[in-house]
Amino acid sequence: MPSNLTVSASLEDYLEAIYHTVEAKGAARAKDIVQRLGVHNSSVTQALRSLSEKDLINYAPYDVITLTAGGERIALDVVKRHSTLSEFLNKVLGLPETEADEGACRMEHAISPVILERLVKFVEYFENCPLNEARWDQEIGFFCSKNDDDKDENNCGRDACGNNYDPDELARLQKQARQQVEE
Questions:
Q1: pTM
Q2: Domains detected in the chain
Q3: CA distance 133 to 162
Q4: pLDDT of 20 strictly over 90
Q5: How far is CA 171 from CA 99, 116, 117, 120, 174, in A?
Q6: What kind and span of H or E run contains 52?
Q7: Cα–Cα dist 127/81, whole Å
């Protein structure tokens, strides 16, 4: 697979659908993709041919569809972006699961690796901090019920809002973000 290969958002959706279908059923067929994505047979056939030409899937009409190593690498990346965004929208912003999943599906194709990395770290912190007091309120957004008086009692050792910034890690992320903007 060429390193400069570009895959459209639509083809990424097909790779993701193939990946999930193989995970669930052990194999994927064109009709499975039609059902999963809710598209027409002709659209699936065209997409499968395109993915096959790019050497991202092994495909022959009426046969099972499998991902190549390159296709699986892209599919796993899409799955990671989708699950991170869906978890963020659901667990952090408090959106219903269905709405979070639909939003993640639309956003997953446009998010940069730097933003994704930061969202992953934030979701991990949000889920793992045993004394996390940050909550979403429909009227005011995020709020933290902790205050400076709680530092000695129910605080996880961070500042009043739970922040624990590693200066070296923060500097690395800022440098990485600047470099990406310059490219």
A1: 0.69
A2: 9-74 (1.10.10.10), 129-183 (no CATH)
A3: 8
A4: yes
A5: 34, 17, 14, 17, 5
A6: helix 41-53
A7: 17
